[in-house]
Design goal:
Number of helices: 29
Family: Belongs to the PPP phosphatase family.
Shape: globular
Structural class: alpha/beta
GO molecular function, one term: calcium ion binding
Helix content: 25-40%
Pfam families: Metallophos
CATH superfamily of one domain: Metallo-dependent phosphatases
CATH topology of one domain: Purple Acid Phosphatase, chain A, domain 2
Radius of gyration: 32 Å
Protein name: EF-hand domain-containing protein
Number of strands: 32
Length: 817
């Protein structure tokens, strides 16, 4: 092992000199591809060599003082490459200046442990390093050491490519570009663009973390982590111990704060973790859910989102301890096992996952978590503030959002809790009383529908009100709504027929027909009804924009592939009373046919619901890659139509359905932030013109492959999966989709660039079967949802996404019963 000792420089006053900015030396050898790192033992990690610049000392003099004892270098090859400025901070901060330095070729470089990682107990070797000793490390070694949380901060990894580009290009030409970065307190509104979304704002509001408190916390954080911008475990220990928490559990608190499992904390990680700990934070609603996530990570020692019984038992012991009870031995084990079973677990050998834990607490099957994970003193009391702080800054403006052909005015209202909530008010469509009364069984089945006019004789409406309802204009405006309940419309006749198809039929003896069969029904009558529906739905599709704008709440379903049974399961679970009586719209992402046996029934159901509810914009249908004639010819939907309706009539039905498919919209935008599409983002260089170009996609679109490359890619593209080589290695954001033979794979960088260019937060798509019914991909910015279980005879589940209250909630559907 090769290391040399450096003079210590950790105090603000060194040898009687007042220290100023931080000077960081990024020393890199291009031949052996290694960085020179220094061991800062008191701060618990390795990092670039750095020193505080003393008063009356230039940066170059600081570098010379730091490097002369240990390294031979060329002073002409010292270049300022990055400046982190603190001039915009509300307190006096300290700038950080990064200098790139190339050692002379005559320098002897011994790579630590000969560059090895595997087969050596690196953690033990790290513990033998002396304080302020230097070592040459490869990037692979740095990554491994980072996983052990033994770097001061992760800049040696996050800035690695940036620095290498500088070393390999600009220094050679003596034309270095300086990267200038202003250090700012992260404004809370930017959290909505990261993992935390708006739940973070709610958490800070509940903790009463005003802008003043946040500034004080950032000042404390800034001076503790310098010259890095990250908290490692040792620095976290020093900060958190000041808040009165037990040092013996510092690793547990650190794990709870580290929601991204990067082994280092940002200021936002630190801020939100303290908010979750604060005794002011209420243990109900959104704050409670966030707190429970921290509590789960705190007790999940293995940090694998699967809590063992032994870990759970520690939680139970702490719950009783915080209530002044000392539960031990068999009594603790019995109590813990009983509570463990409240989550549906049968034995102590099973594990409890995070989502089941959140569900159990939310449904009050498990109680006592409110006393866990708490500071003994609020942060506001900790700072001993004597005046009323400034209010927390949250974006609050009255904005107009056009969704589902409605203009919504966003207003801010005060709630009883003292917090604020944004609500949408439709100024152009005032409320009115619906003219039909629905009678529902306890089971949720609609048993009777009565017109409000018919109830006048029963005294349900007064005479003056009856005069209002008799107004001709009022009746005219309600025709579409009344048709929704008119059982004689083709759409309702089709739905009634599908109810018959769904159910088995007995009449005192043997079954007349099995469930999900037509029995002796005249299929030509169904075909004629379906052809009428096709004409009606085509007139709707042809008028819709290629990009639909949808408002939450909204269920998003992926591929159905002729699985009518699962579609009915979704109906009975999420819109049992029918979409018109469901407080959410429903968005389908395509692939309604092929693979399954009931593509005709799926299409008939969706077309009927769309026709019935077009007046209130509750059902939205997008096109998938199986809504193409040549694809259906390779699979079974073309043959299914012929088999069910005969050759001639079946061909006519198939062609009319595909004519409707030709006019279907291609993608949708939920709340102007979430792009929904069947396949994926396009590779075309469209910059900020995406929405404009989508609106220009031809309609009808019979041959998207030749008529619209943009539409084709939106239908076919896939995200890069683990089985495909990483695009980063070939410096490309898209590669040909060799698995499908058309379209492209796109990388996380391509997705991030696309989201940023178009001011989007997420992409929700379908197109690929997933074992759990869904998959979160590409750094959490892409959701794949698949809504047909047992696909092609497999064991996959079906799922949907609920977009509501600024959350994308993933819901798995049990289709076993």
């Amino acid at each position: 092992m090769h290391h040399k000792n450096l003079p210590s420089s950790n105090n603000n006053i060194i040898d009687g000199h007042l220290s100023l900015d931080y000077i960081v030396c990024v020393i890199y050898d291009k031949i052996k591809d290694v960085y020179l790192m220094n061991n800062y033992q008191q701060r618990g990690g390795l990092w670039f060599l750095f020193s505080e610049r003393r008063i009356n000392e230039t940066s170059l003099q600081s570098i010379k003082r730091l490097l002369d004892p240990i390294l031979i270098y060329d002073s002409d090859q010292i270049h300022l490459v990055k400046v982190c400025s603190t001039k915009t901070l509300p307190f006096k901060g300290r700038d950080v200046l990064f200098y790139a330095i190339i050692p002379k070729s005559t320098t002897t470089i011994n790579i630590w442990l000969n560059g090895k990682v595997d087969g050596i107990d690196i953690e033990r070797q790290l513990n033998t390093l002396h304080d302020n000793s230097t070592v040459w490390l490869t990037t692979i070694q740095l990554k491994y050491i980072s996983k052990l949380s033994r770097l001061l901060g992760i800049e040696p990894l996050t800035l690695n490519k940036q620095f290498k580009d500088i070393f390999h290009s600009t220094i050679k030409t003596n034309n270095t570009t300086v990267i200038y970065e202003e250090i700012k307190i992260p404004p809370i509104e930017t959290i909505s663009k990261t993992t935390y979304n708006n739940a973070a704002e709610t958490l800070l509001l509940s903790a009463k973390f005003t802008s003043t408190i946040q500034e004080k916390l950032y000042e404390e954080y800034h001076h503790s982590v310098l010259p890095s911008d990250y908290l490692n475990l040792e620095t976290f220990k020093n900060l958190i111990s000041r808040k009165g928490l037990e040092s013996s559990h510092v690793i547990d608190y650190f794990r709870a704060f580290d929601s991204t499992q990067r082994n280092y904390l940002t200021f936002l990680d630190y801020l939100l973790g303290l908010a979750a700990l604060d005794p002011n934070t209420q243990h109900g609603g959104v704050p409670a859910e966030q707190r429970c996530r921290y509590i789960f990570r705190y007790y999940n020692i293995n940090n694998n989102q699967r809590m063992t019984f032994d870990e759970f038992k520690i939680m139970i012991k702490d719950i009783h301890k915080n209530k002044g009870q000392n539960l031990i031995g068999d009594a603790l084990n019995d109590e813990a096992l009983q509570m463990f079973r409240s989550f549906g677990l049968r034995s102590s050998d099973q594990t409890l996952n995070l989502m089941d834990f959140l569900s159990g607490v939310g449904q009050l099957r498990f109680r006592g978590t409110s006393v866990l994970f708490r500071l003994t003193m609020s942060i506001s009391d900790f700072f001993k503030r004597t005046s009323t702080p400034n209010t927390l800054v949250i974006p609050s403006s009255t904005s107009n959002i056009t969704t589902s052909n409605r203009t919504l005015s966003t207003l801010t209202i005060a709630r009883r809790s003292g917090t604020q909530q944004q609500v949408s008010v439709d100024d152009t469509h005032p409320y009115e009383i619906a003219t039909h009364i629905v009678k529902v069984k306890r089971t949720g089945v609609v048993v009777d529908i009565t017109s409000l006019y018919d109830l006048e004789i029963a005294g349900a409406i007064s005479g003056s009100t009856a005069l209002f309802f008799d107004d001709d204009n009022g009746k005219f405006d309600r025709i579409s709504s009344q048709d929704c309940f008119n059982q004689r419309t083709h759409a309702n006749e089709m739905l009634n027929g599908l109810r018959y198809f769904e159910r088995g039929s007995k009449e005192g003896g043997p079954a007349l027909k099995d469930a999900f069969t037509w029995g002796k029904v005249d299929m030509s009558a169904m075909a004629r009804c379906l052809l009428v529906l096709c004409k009606q739905i085509y007139s709707i599709f042809i008028k819709e924009n290629r990009l639909l704008r949808v408002s939450s709440a909204c269920y998003i379903l992926g591929d159905l592939h002729g699985n009518f049974r699962d579609l009915i399961c979704f109906e009975k679970t999420f819109w049992r009373l029918g979409p018109v009586l469901t407080p959410a719209s429903i968005l389908f992402l395509g692939d309604y046919v092929d693979r399954g046996l009931e593509g005709v029934e799926v299409v008939a159901y969706l077309f009927a619901q769309k026709v019935l509810l077009n007046f209130c914009f509750l059902v939205f249908l997008l096109r998938g890659n199986h809504e193409l004639r040549n694809v259906q010819d390779m699979f079974q939907f073309h043959g299914e139509c012929r088999r069910k309706f005969g050759m001639d009539l079946g061909e006519q039905v198939w062609e009319e359905i595909n004519r409707c498919f030709d006019a279907m919209p291609i993608c949708a935008l939920v709340d102007n932030r979430i792009l929904c599409v069947h396949g994926g983002i396009p590779s075309l260089d469209i910059k900020n013109d995406f929405f404009k170009l989508v609106s220009q996609i031809p309609c009808p679109l019979r041959d998207p492959e030749n008529e619209s490359p943009l539409a084709w890619e939106l239908l076919w593209n896939d995200p890069l999966s683990n089985e495909i080589n990483d695009l980063e290695n070939i410096n490309n954001e898209f590669i040909s989709n060799v698995r499908r033979g058309t379209g492209f794979f796109f990388s996380s960088k391509a997705l991030n660039d696309f989201l940023q260019q178009n001011s989007l937060s997420y992409v929700v798509r379908a197109h690929e079967v997933q074992q759990q019914g869904f998959k979160v991909q590409l750094n959490g910015r892409l959701l794949t949802v698949f809504s047909s279980s047992h696909y092609c005879g497999g064991e996959n589940e079906a799922a949907t996404v609920l977009c509501d209250s600024n959350k994308l909630r993933l819901i798995r559907l049990d289709t076993s019963s």
